[in-house]
Structures are given as structure tokens and as C-alpha cells.
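Record pair follows.
FIRST:
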Amino acid sequence: MSGNEGEEEIVFEIGVVVPKKGENQGDESSLDCVDVLVDEFKKRGLIVERVLGLQNEFIKLAAPLEILGKAAAELQFRKQTHIGMDLPFEWDEVEAFVRQPDGSLFTWCERFRCYNHIIYWIVNTGKSVVELKNDCREINWVPGEPLLRKLESEGVVREVFPLHDENKRKKLLRSWALNWWDFTTQPIDEIYLYYGVKIAIYFAFLGKYTRWMLFPATLGLTMQLVDFGSMQLLVLPFFFICLISWAVLFFQFWKRKNSALLARWQINHLAGAESEYKFFQMEQSSLQSPAELMKKRGADKMKEKAFFQREEWFRWLMRFRNDAVIILSIICLQLPFELAYAHLYEVIGSDFLKFCLTAVYLLAIQSFTRMGGKISVKLVKCENNENVEYRARSLVYKVFGLYFMQSYIGIFYHALLHRNLMTLRQVLIQRLIMYEVLENLMENSIPYLTYSFKKFRAIRNKRKREQGSSTGKGQTIPRVEKEYLKPAYAASIGRELEDGLFDDFLELVLQFGMIMMFACAFPLAFAFATLNNLTEIRTDALKLLAMMRRPTPRADATIGAWLNIFQFLIVMSICTNSILLVCLYDQDGKWKVSPGLAAILIMEHVLLFIKFGFSRIVPEEPAWVRAARMKNAAQAADMCSKQLLRSISGDEKIFGQMKKST
């Protein structure tokens, strides 16, 4: 169901792909596994529709609100109530919980989790093995085994994927992807309701980042067009100070925006605290009374402490080993390759040969980075991380190290070793224009070409199977099969850990590093980046709505590890731009400590103070969000204390009655 659940409109949100039935079905009295699966879906209250495609059969699933509500109660979702507290969801008390802005009770992420809980927890509750048939193959469904997992392992169920809501998709196309007149304005609430919090946070960040980019773009354009003459060496430090202040303030105000969005969407992003609360709740529910709870916790305190310490240090050692492997591979393998390319680019005089060298370099480095990414994924899997979010963060740091070396070491070579600012500007222009244009073309054209090829192959195979007959030649591809043929929104590296936002954030991070770390050498780069980001908002939206499957929702409530990388790049930009200013001031290369160089050194320390000082001056969350959070925590603590006191009083009364009876 979608929108206002009071309406009876059926919206199919999950698709299950199974092979089409062959001619050899075996014994008709035996149970066909697909028919059994459909019957089990119906027994769980799901609305089922079977669609025959050109190559496969598709089972579309929808769920009434009551079915989703009962699944949410079993999963113990914590949802906000009308009194402002987050409490475990109960279907019988549904009116006590706050609904979404569109009138729906559950978000897309919550509905997807409910669907997974329903369909993957269909188990054989009998005491005997159920024999299923798939063509001429026999499948034994043993007691207690999940049916869908069994059929996936046997290759009967080929894939389970989320379906687009066609009405909402077309509405977002009109108001978002094709709405070029609003520039950075986006329907963030509608994006959140349709795609989930992680994708909504990305586009909120991209929109705010692009709006704030107008300030440095205007400054950079002024620096490029106006000839300041002898004042250039004074204007550049002023431009640099404005940039650092802008970057620091932007990320502080982004944190405030992020907190405000989460409060508006009723999301509690303190995952660690929530997991600890669930652990305490599960432990408490397994005991008879608070006295027994305290007794057991006291007895197991030393063992629990030793276990956590051992796990903590083991995880730290594994991460240290893997980080050392990545760093050594970068130093021993990638660094010589990057330096060789930078040296050849400096030596070659022909512009045509430089262009060919850059093209070959980009092709070679893509293969190298892909190989390094696969190694990083294997190393991350060896780490004993707590959850998927920690594994994804570890992968982000490792892969960014590879891309950092790939993207910037050649530029450092031109800037610091040869001190050739003209060549540095040429390299920056090539990287910004060539990389951004090629990246946009590839990320939008490859999904479309992949989908077109799969669609053409499906029609061709259908016609080959039906040669000599007119049946099926005019058959159109059903919409659910068109969605299945579209590529999944997955990361180019580590698909099992990250979705397509990995590549989008990586592109933003590399762009930010390039324009910030070499701002004094090429101020016009901010104008190029602003134009690219204005286009990126709409092309990314069009890619999600028209060229990709509906992504699997993820519950990440912040930009995570990418924020730390942005902060690292700000510190790096302070160092690199200070060195660039030194190169501009000390053109003879004597490196004497003169008043000008001393002023640059003092400016670097002042900027570092600004970087860490502004982070303390500007609060990370608005006052109203902080007040609401503290009020919620106080109410929860008050309610828990009252329940605990009632439980203790009840235990004392029972103990007194037992004592009197004896």
C-alpha cells in the first residue's frame, strides 16, 4: 500500500523473479515449488499477482497496512508517538503513533524491512519434509527451513528486488528530475518518502553544497577576470582565507541541516544508544525480576569486560594490518606509476602526445583502482566489524586512499617539485573538464546502454524460440520485466557493502579536493565545479528515476565517513595552498625566511585555528532539535524509572506474601 493507507489502492512494491514453467513438469500430483511459494505468500496476507515475461515469470507483492503493522510489531520498530516519545510499535495502539507527511504510517525503509521479514520467515512448520518439484528436479523443504532462502540456493528464485511506484515516479520526474528552472531546489521530503533517508540526505547535501558554491565561484571568477597587478600577492591570501572560512562554515551549517532533517523525519540517528537499549531490554526480558537481573550482571561483569576488551583489540589489530597493507601497496605500486606519468607529462612537449598520454593513463588507472578496490573489499571482510555500517566506512577510507593517490600525486608533482604553475593549471583544467564530463557521460549512458542491450537480447531470444509461429512476436515486455532488466543502483567497488551513492560521493570528494587544495593556482575551478553540480543534481535524479531499478533502502542518517574525508581535505588545502603561495612569493626558490614567507606561515596557523575554532563556535544542531531530544530523553527516563519502581514494589509484595504463607 502507498500514500494514505485508508485508500484501497494496491501498489506492488516487491518483485520475485522465477523461471517460466517448462514443458516437462513431471508428476502433476507433486507440489510445484513456485505454486507453493505463491500459496505461502497468500497465507501470510500478501496480495500476489503473477506476470509472465519474455524470459522469466514475475511474482509481484503488495501488503495491506494491517499485515505490515503486525510485522513491524514483531520487529519492534521504535516510532515516534504523539507525545513526542519513541516507543516500540504496537499494531493495537496504531493511533498513538505519528504518521508521515503524506499520511502513510511507515517509511519506505520500514516497509521494505517488513516485506523482508514476511517473505523470508516463511518456514516449514510441520514435522516432516515437504517434497517440491521444479520441472524434473526434486527439492526437499525440511522442517524449520526458510522457503525463500531454500529456493534462492536452488536457483529457483533468481532475485528479489523492489518495484517502482509508477505514480510517484512520474510525479518525481516532473517536480525533480525534469524541473531545470529551480536550479538547486529539490522536493527533499518526497525523495525521503520514496527512496529512504540515505538517498535523501545525499541530495540534500548536494543541493546545499551547490548553493554555497556560488560564493567561491563568484570570488574565483572575479580573481580570474580582474587584473590586480602588483596587488595579486595580497589578493590571493585574502581569497584563500575566505575559502577556508567558507568551507568550515559550510560543513558546520550542514551538520545543523542534517540534524533538522532527521528531526523533521522523526529519525533517531543514535544507533549505538538504541542498540545498547535493545540489548538491555532483551536481557531484562529474559529474567524474572530486577534483583535477579542485577545478580546476573554482577556475576558476569568480569567475563563481559574481558570479552569486550579482547574483541576491541582484535578488531583494532585487524584494521591496523589491513590499513598497513593498503598503505604499503600505494607506496610501492601506485606511487611510482603516478610519478612516472607526471614526469613524462612534464618532459613531453607536444600537446597531442600529452592528450594521448592522459587518455592511456586514465584507462590504466581505472584497472589499477578496480583491482585495489577488490583487495580492499576482501580485507574489510576479514575485519571483525560490528555491523555493515562499520564495514562500509572501512571500505570508504581504504578506497579513498587509492583515489587520493591517483588524483592528486601528479598535481603535487607539478606544483611542488617543478613549481610550474602554468602546467599545473593545464592539468587542473584537463582533470576537471575531462574527468567530470567523462564521468557524467559514463554514469548516465552505461545504464541506458545496458538496459537497451538486455531488452534487445530478451526480444531476440523470444523470437528465436518461437520461430515459425506468430504467437508472441507482437508481445510487449511487461513493466515489471523492464524494471528487472535495468541495472541495480550499486557501487562500482564492494557492491555487497555499498550502493551507488558510494560513487556519487566519491566524485564529490575528489572534486572538492581538487578545487580546494589548488585554489590559489586556479581560482576559476570553483565556477566549473558549480556548473557541474547544477547539472549533477538533475542527471543523478534522472538516473535514479528512469535508468535504474528502485534502490534497496538503507538507514544511514548522515553522510558518515565522507564527512571526515571532507574535513581532512580542508586541512590538506590549508597546507597545499600555503605552499603554493610560498612558490608564488619566492619565485627564485631561495626559501629565505623573509617577512612575506613569515606572514604566510602565520596565516597557515591562523587558518588552522579558524578550522578548529569555527567547529566549536557554530553548534552542530539547532536549539529546537536539541531541546526536543532532551525532552524526549527525559520523558523516556521518567517512564522507565516508574516502571522499574513498580516492578520492584511488586517483587517486594510477592516476597512478603510468600514469607507470611511460610
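SECOND:
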Amino acid sequence: MESSLRVRRFEGLPSPDEFSSEIEPANVAAVFHGAVKDWKAISRWNPSDGGLDYLEESVGSSVLEAMLSRSGRIFYGDIRSHERVPIPFSTFITSCKKHLQNLDVGSSFEAQVCSEDSDLANSDIPGELYVAQVPIMNTERNERCPLETLTEDIQTPVFLGTKTLASINFWMNMAHSRSSTHYDPHHNLLCVVSGCKRVVLWPPSACSILYPMPVYGEASNHSAVNIEKPDFLVHPRAKNFEEHSQKIILHPGDALFIPEGWFHQVDSDDLTIAVNFWWKSDMMSNMLEHMDPYYLRRILNRLVEKEKNQMLHESFTGGSKFIENYQLADVASEDNHEMDCCKPRDTTKENSRRHGILQQLEPFALHVLYELVSLVHNTISVDNQNGSTESTSKDPCSPDVEKEQIVKDNPRLSEIDTVANIFSAVEPLVLRNILLGMVHHFPRTLEALILHMLSPKGAEVLTRKFDEMDQQIMKEEQCEFYRQFYGVFDDQFAAMDAILNGKELFALQAFKNVLDKYLGARPDQPNS
């Protein structure tokens, strides 16, 4: 967990200016101990001290919607697992009184606090009602607020004084319950009035490991992962969910600021009562609707670039192993063989000049060139001048090999990433010298390498190396390199297309990964 994402804790209350300028913009969760300890509700609503009678007298006649879970005491956001049912609040209070009477006589109600080892998922107790998100005040929706009279017992925390609140909501559960992992579309201040809540938090950056539900679904803000019993075969990225999580325990009077987009799972002890405040963030409030398509494209572009970097990082082991194998091998003896095989066999002035390029290569660069040439001739079928297939054991540095015609209808070997791993292991200027060596000595091999063996990942790595190279050499050197490189190809535009098409295919895969990781959308699956 990055230190900048650690939950902050405050014993004193910040001023409105401090909250608005320092705490809220950081978009990091924060705990304010004792923030609402002076609310009248702390004493009036306390179930162990007549609070249930008080609530019944104050709002018992109100009919409100409660969540009826089909999955025991775990309340999921998906409407398939619960339903909203109208119920007189007095009926719910009566059930709470019976539950309070059934609690162990030997332990005081105040002593029943959330345990770090609570195992709700293994409980055998049947499904329960949960009075969840019942509005005390709501400015976003033109709807009745059945518990409006309870506003007399609470006060908006001072540091929220400048905020335009979207709603104030009442939450109450009878027995130990859990809300599934989800995020809210608003900033949230969760205040515990009675009982205890244990909250597990994940920052928005952990979205991909929590497998969000499809963005087009009814429960789009919920995670598909069962945190209690995760199935790593179905959700392999979830293996790291614990190291990205933080656990907070809230007691009566405490308040937790949960920024928009932060995933949270909440366990509530028996007869826990809470009030939360929702308000729009400044960023969302200031976003102009006509700019949404632009913002969407910009954010997707940023996520795709991040995903491309991650894809290359995860697959770079091939390049590392290539270097290790070279270093562990008897380099001296192998280099002598490679350099012998590539020594000039023609004493003409032109060939001597061209072979001088090979002789200028460092041993590692010469080794890479040899590997690339061998890879091409060992992978792609070649026809010799007589129309027979050459043995893969044929000396790849032989001048005769360079006269062989590459079979044009050979399928693109898009799954082979050996070339990409080799490119990854080589510094940009070293790669330039290697490619120039192929330009002068193995032009047809270079053509086959680019047109027939360059995978999407290889195209991405190659263009990145080109970009790095351009930053290290003069403009004139850049132009001369690309003139020689593309001059090898009978159709220079076909070579450019092969590289750019591969690069775009790599980006397309990254885009699909982004849709899966962050939007829960899997376009390749028929039922997505």
C-alpha cells in the first residue's frame, strides 16, 4: 500500500477550510474519532438504554423500504440477491427488541464490538431485514423522507458546513450483517451512532483486483469477488486484495470519510445504527456534461498506456533470461564461432566495407544479431534457388542463405514473442547497430523478421526503441538510419504498415484488458 493512500486519523475536527483544501482533495479515506459524540442521537437512539422505544415513539408510524436479503445476512448490491420491501418502522423496531432480549445475558450490549476475526459468512442464521439508506434528507430526488423528524437529533459536522449535501441517510441492522464490497458515486461521511462497524477499504487504484461488475449492469459499483472466500481460479488478480486493503473499526461517535470511488465492505454488529452524509465531489460537480466524451477518451487513453506498460513489464522475463543465458554461456568460445561464421568471405572493396560493420559490433551485439538471424531461418520456411526447403542446420551467416526466397504465404507468427524479448534486452543504440548490420548483410532476413515474425508485442517494443533512439541521436542520423532500414523492403509502406498494425493490435489488447479490469466488460465473450 502506497503511503500516500494510507487512511489518515484525526482526534480533533478540522475546520471547513482545512477539510476542503487539504483532506477532501487528496481523495484518501480519513477517520475522525469522536466527531459526532455530542449528537443527541448518541444517547437517544442507544438500543441498550431505551433507544428502541424512543425511535418507535418518534418515527414508528413511518412506512419505509427495507432490504430483504436472499443471501443470509450478507447484503449484495445486485437486486437479484435482495428486494426492497415496505415495512412499518414499528414492526422492525419490535423485531429488534426481541433480538435484544435474546442476546446473551452474560455480556453487556456495549461489550459487543466488531471483532477482527468475525466470520459472518459461516453463520447459520437465516436472512434478515436491513434498514439501509433510508433518507432523513434528500436534495437529489424529489421523494418523501420518512425519517425527516430525526434531523433534530443530529447535526451536520462543522467541517461539512460548506458542502451542498445530496442526502442524509439512516442505516440500522437487527443482527450482525455485512454489505458487499462496493464503491459510492459520492463522497461519503459515515457516522456511527450505536454499535460498531468494521470497514475494509480499497483505493480506486485497486479496482482491477476486485473485478468490478459490468458497468452496464444493475450492480455496476459492486465487486464480483467474495472477499470471505475468494475463488482465485475465477478471479486470479484478487490474490493481492489483502495487501491493498485497510481495516478500520468505528465506535459510537466516530466518523469515516470515504471518498468517491473507494471500495468498501462494511460489517455491522448487532443493532448498529449509523447516519451517513453524501455530497458530490468538486471534480464531479465541475465537470461539464458536454465534455464527457472527451474526458472518457482521455481517461481510457491513460489507462490503456498504463496497461501497455504493465503488459510489457509482466512479459519482460524473456528479455532478462536472454541476457542471463548470454552471460552464463561460454561467451568467448561462442563469439569466436559467431564471428568466424560472419567474417567476410569476399575481398572486394564494397564487401570489405560492409563486413566492417559486423566487425565493429560488440560481442553481445553480434550475439544478438546471430540469434535474430538464426531465429528467422529456423522458424520460417525458405526456398532455395532449386525449390527445396533448406535444412534448419544450414549456416545462417552463409551468403547463399541470403539469396533464398522467403515464402510469401507463410502465416504471421503472432504468438511468438522471442523477437520482442530480444528487442527488450537491447539498448536502443545497440539495436540500431544490429539492425544496420542486418540491412547490409541480411536484408531478406530483416524483411522476413519485420513482415512475418513481428508480433504485436514485438512491434510495440520496436517502436519504443525507435523513440528512445531518436532522443539520443541527431536528426541527420535519424533520417539516415530510417532511410537505410526501410530501403531494404521492396515495399516500404508494407513494412511501415506491418509495424504500425502490430502496434495497434497490441494497443487493442490493452484496451480490452482495460474494459475487463475497470469496467467489467468482456467484449470477446458472447454473453457480455
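COMMENT: The longest strand covers residues 129-138.
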